Amino acid sequence: MTVAVSGSANQTEINQDDIAALSISGLHKTYSNGFVALRGLDLVVRQGDFFALLGPNGAGKSTTIGITSSLVNKSAGSVSIFGHSIDSELSKAKKCLGLVPQEFNFNQFEKVIDIVTNQAGYYGLPRKKALKNAEKYLRQLGLWEKRDDISRALSGGMKRRLMIARALVHEPKLLILDEPTAGVDIELRRSMWSFLESINAQGVTIILTTHYLEEAESLCRNIAIIDKGEIIENTSMRTLLSKLNSEVFLLDCKSPLPNNFELKGFNWSEVDHGIEVEIQKQDGLNPLFEQLNRAGVEILSMRNKANRLEELFVRLVEKGVDNTVGLDAEQYAAESLPVTSDNGSGKGQEVI
User: Fold this and answer.
1) CA atoms of 250 and 276, how far apart (whole Å)
2) Taking every annotated instance into account, which residue ranges of this chain make up the domain ABC transporter (predicted)?
3) In angstroms, rounded to a whole number, what is the distance separating the alpha carbons of residues 104 and 106?
4) Per-residue pLDDT tens over the stretch 85-105
5) Cα(114)–Cα(150) distance, rounded to whole angstroms?
6) Cα atoms found within 13 Å of the Cα of residue 167, Cβ hemisphere only
7) Does residue 324 fall inside a structural domain?
8) Which of 41, 105, 123, 243 is the most exposed place for a label (fewest CB within 10 A)?
């Protein structure tokens, strides 16, 4: 789709498919206590992406999300959502955005169906359309049978899913999820992964922040890592993971290891029922299995021990983390992201 843009002398055409889902340029944030949360952050998330925004506590993730969703005032820089500046076209930008915050911020005494449909009203959806969308997403998220329940009666996992349904009810093109599976059991977490993958396949751009790095590695195609208010890595997940020179494996052995067993040329240790060994990528697995065969060690199974993204994340952040200054993510949220049930029209702390 193209849109003609008229000027005094020229007329140009903008291809809507070329407009970034989220464009951040030179973003700065200094809080009233003097803490510098963002230092000229630049970030572009393309339409249709499933994007991971990761960083240690206090890195600036929550501040970036808060500014993008207009809950926090920026000190400098620009933010556009599908081409709509949050400075000059805030209403249009908000309609493109759905936010799932880390903290539960809905009325605990309100019915599930009302929480979702009332949210749609902030975006001007007619009641009939709001009810239709609410049913659609509550069904997809397994909450339709709970629609008339008071929200405080829901389990933690149900409340997480309720916030996703609420964020999607006005059918935004960009969904930002801040720790969406925190405190959720593994089975439910994976069902939520499947749901998020399905809406992403339908064209919804997703930005995910999470402390479950397995989650980011499984879901996301591209990734940015933020530390001390700056982007320190911004690339595809595949490219980032390719930077690892080694992997750690756990080998389950059929029987106890022979006396004086040794793996020459490997960093290894004996663990319960097997072996933990680090393999260099350039070496491959053949040298390992040659030694195991000579020693008569039979392997029942083999699996990765460490999350590859976690290992890279630690390496990148260890280069420059300063634990003596800054606020952690929870402090950011408490200080700058107000707990409301509206569409994010409230403002955070004033810039200085």
Assistant:
1) 5
2) 22-253
3) 6
4) 999 999 999 999 999 999 999
5) 10
6) 27
7) no
8) 243
The percentage of residues in the chain with a pLDDT greater than 70, rounded to a whole number, is 85
What pLDDT sits at residue 7?
Answer: 46
d(CA 226, CA 234): 9
What lies within 8 Å, CB to CB, of 6 at 6+ separation is none
The string of pLDDT tens digits covering residues 256-269 is: 999 889 999 998 99
The alpha carbon of residue 338 and the mean position of all alpha carbons in its chain are separated, in whole angstroms, by: 20
Average pLDDT of the segment spanning 110-122:
97
Helix ranges, 78-206 (H): 90-95, 112-121, 127-140, 156-168, 186-201
Q: Collapsing DSSP states into helix, strand and coil, what is residue 181? A: coil
**What six digits make up the tokens of 179?**
């720790």
Contact assessment for residue 46 and residue 21, using Cβ atoms and an 8 Å cutoff: yes
Mean pLDDT of 37-47: 98
DSSP code for 258:
P
> Contacts from 182-185 at CB under 8 Å and sequence distance 24+?
182/102, 182/211, 183/156, 183/157, 184/156, 184/157, 184/160, 185/157
Q: Tell me: do 39 and 89 sit in the same domain.
A: yes
Structure tokens at 295: 């020693």
Q: Are 227 and 321 in contact (CB under 8 A)?
A: yes
Q: Are strands 299-304 and 246-253 parallel, antiparallel or unpaired?
A: antiparallel
Residues sharing a CB contact under 8 Å with residue 347, sequence separation 6 or more, in sequence order: 70, 71, 72, 73
> Facing residues of 36 across strands?
30
Average pLDDT over residues 115-141: 96
Residue where the block lists tokens 């064209």: 203
**Greatest Cα pair distance in the chain:** 86
Q: How far apart are CA 115 and CA 111, in angstroms?
A: 6
What is the span of the domain harbouring residue 34?
Answer: 20-241
Q: Is 7 helix (H, G, I), strand (E, B) or coil?
A: coil
CA 63 – CA 39 distance, rounded (Å): 11
Residue 48: closest CA among 28, 22, 24, 73: 22
Count of domains for the chain: 2
